[in-house]
Amino acid sequence: MLFRTVRELIDLAESQGKKISEIMIEQEMLVTKKSREEIIGQMEKNLQVMESAVEKGLNGVTSHSGLTGGDAVLLQKYIEKGNFLSGEFLLDAVSKAVATNEVNAAMGMICATPTAGSAGVVPGTLFAVKNKLNPTREQMINFLFTSGAFGFVVANNAFISGAAGGCQAEVGSAAGMAAAAIVEMAGGTPSQCADAMAITLKNMLGLVCDPVAGLVEVPCVKRNAMGAANAMVAADMALAGIVSKIPCDEVIDAMYRVGRAMPQSLRETAQGGLAATPTGKRLAQEIFGTPQKK
Amino acid sequence: MKFRSVFDIIGPVMIGPSSSHTAGAARIGRVARNVFGRQPKWAHVHLYGSFAETYRGHGTDVAIVGGLLDYDTFDERIIQAMEIAAEQGLEVKFFEEKEVPEHPNTARLVIGDDEGELELVGLSIGGGKIEIDEINGFKLKLTGENPAIIVVNNDRFGCIASVANVLATYEINIGHMEVSRKEKGKLALMVLETDETVDQEVMDAISKLPNILQVARIVE
């Protein structure tokens, strides 16, 4: 194993003058004994799945429950009108993140990044910044390896599932991973990648997992939207030279401790938070006929 | 390090909506089927923790049945798994357990047919990754940090040596190994934790050995 922490990852990349994506590929070769071509080929396939999911979502999908779908389309139409306030690439990232999660909610095919519930953030931001940075296919694949490197550290030092650590572990991790990968693609340093990840995750700390009716729909789709927005803004902050006062590894550790302190009702049991609101409970009743929880 | 590969993070490619409750659930079902060696006629699925509370919303039930039908996480037939199982004569019952498990996403599968039965406890630990905790009441002492395979064999001399021999040929080092059997001379199983990933070619080589009945990966 070449690295276990963000610090080790950054030191390796900077001392060898390599990109984080390259360190991730080297570690994968070391651990799995697979060839570089095989590993890159597999990531290329994942990229294709992500691309198809974004495309499908932008054409409009609706979930079985009817709770989610169509919002990606609304956003694209809104962007086309040109009267938006925040920013074109930001909104494009948001709409593509929403598109992916709408496809996921509709039991469509997606690539988990790092989970299915948080699968929108990484591809959403990737396919938005693509229009600004005009990356090669190889650079797009590297975006996924960089995301994976940061997610790998989080998964092994904290958690990436809502049932274990709340939404901060899922969308929080995904947004941090995306922010770091955007920075690398935009030409930032490995340290700036870590700062972007840290800034993002700091702003997702404490986010609970409270799916209405236990479905990966409300509020998951909109959490992916804001995860993408968070990642885009944090990437810009890091590229501007803003440094995270708390190092990335310590932010990950804080996320772990916050997750451990979270009650079970806020960890994907559909018993607390938005799931326990009057409307949340009514929706569950309408969908299943009976409350999910007896 | 429970997550070893970048594809544990960027992946799996899967049918939504949840990597732990859908993809992980499908994988647990599929491992149970592979260890059993054939499609069972019936399955009793006991769900614990978050699995018990939200399985309907996440399609956990459908995904486990899909796994029992040997579908991978990205197989679109998972959506119709309940109907297909019914058509193929696989009867499935679900039980929502109140007991608080050590891991929030735990499933206990008891599957069988006229010939035999298998009990397996699987944990879905996030991002679609799973761990097998128990097989036929036999608690596996796996770290979950290394790849592991299970081999079901006739309890005969030389079986363990022949499996170890295949792994040696492919330069795979065994880090930890457990063997168990129900009765002398009948069915036995061995669980091997390895330093290197055991790929399909090696799995096929083991399954061709005499007296080997099933080979399945329990930790990727």
TrEMBL record, chain A:
Which species is listed as the source?
Perspicuibacillus lycopersici
> EC class of this enzyme?
lyase
Which terms are listed as keywords in the entry?
A: 4Fe-4S, Gluconeogenesis, Iron, Iron-sulfur, Lyase, Metal-binding
Give this protein's Gene Ontology molecular function annotations: 4 iron, 4 sulfur cluster binding; L-serine ammonia-lyase activity; metal ion binding
The cofactor(s) it depends on are:
[4Fe-4S] cluster
Domain (Serine dehydratase-like alpha subunit): residue spans on this chain: 16-275
List the Pfam families.
Answer: SDH_alpha (PF03313)
Q: What pathway is this protein said to act in by its record?
A: Carbohydrate biosynthesis; gluconeogenesis
Q: Which reaction does it catalyse?
A: L-serine = pyruvate + NH4(+)
Protein name as it appears in the record: L-serine dehydratase
What gene name is listed for this protein? sdaAA
Supply the NCBIfam families for this chain: sda_alpha (TIGR00718)
Which GO BP annotation is one of this protein's? gluconeogenesis
Automatic annotation (TrEMBL), chain B:
Q: Does the keyword Ribonucleoprotein apply?
A: no
Pathway per its UniProt entry is: Carbohydrate biosynthesis; gluconeogenesis
Keyword tags? 4Fe-4S, Gluconeogenesis, Iron, Iron-sulfur, Lyase, Metal-binding
Matching entries from Pfam families are given as: ACT, SDH_beta
- The residue ranges of the ACT domain are 148-220
Give the GO molecular function terms.
4 iron, 4 sulfur cluster binding; L-serine ammonia-lyase activity; metal ion binding
- Any keyword Membrane? no
Q: What GO biological process terms are annotated to this protein in UniProt?
A: gluconeogenesis
Q: Which cofactor does it need?
A: [4Fe-4S] cluster
Instruction: List the catalytic activities from the record.
Output: L-serine = pyruvate + NH4(+)
Q: What does the sequence similarity comment in the record state about its family?
A: Belongs to the iron-sulfur dependent L-serine dehydratase family.
Specify the protein name.
L-serine deaminase
- Annotated source species: Perspicuibacillus lycopersici
Gene name, Swiss-Prot/TrEMBL: sdaAB
